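Thread: Newbie trying to understand structure tokens

Hi all, I'm a second-year student working on a class project, and my supervisor (Dr. K.) asked me to get a predicted structure for one chain before our next meeting. I've only ever worked with sequences, so writing a 3D structure as a token string is new to me. If someone could post the tokens and maybe explain what I'm looking at, I'd be very grateful. Here's the chain:
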Amino acid sequence: MIDAIRKHTGARIWYHTCGDCSALIPDLIEMGVDILNPVQIGRKGMDPRTLKDRYGKDLVFWGGGIDSQHVHNIQAGVPPENVVALYDTAPEFGFYE
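---
Reply by user tm_fold:
Sure, no problem. This is what the structure looks like when written as tokens:
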């Protein structure tokens, strides 16, 4: 399926998995997966720094750095100014060297 998508489009391949999928990551990369989501950092084997160091040149980790099982969306009742502060502050802390 990935080969067919690559042949006919410029789409990136986004793969969804849950829990500790660290043992599968080399196979996912070999298959052609570009993006892994979510990154459940609370699970064994899913340390974000280790994943970034090991696979960051070959794979985008979407949703890493937070506990995607318990906190990954802006919840109802969050004041709009908090959301604006999040976006204003993220560039200061959100880039890899």
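A couple of things are worth pointing out once you decode it. The chain has a mean pLDDT of 87. The two ends are 34 Å apart (CA to CA). Feel free to ask follow-ups in this thread.
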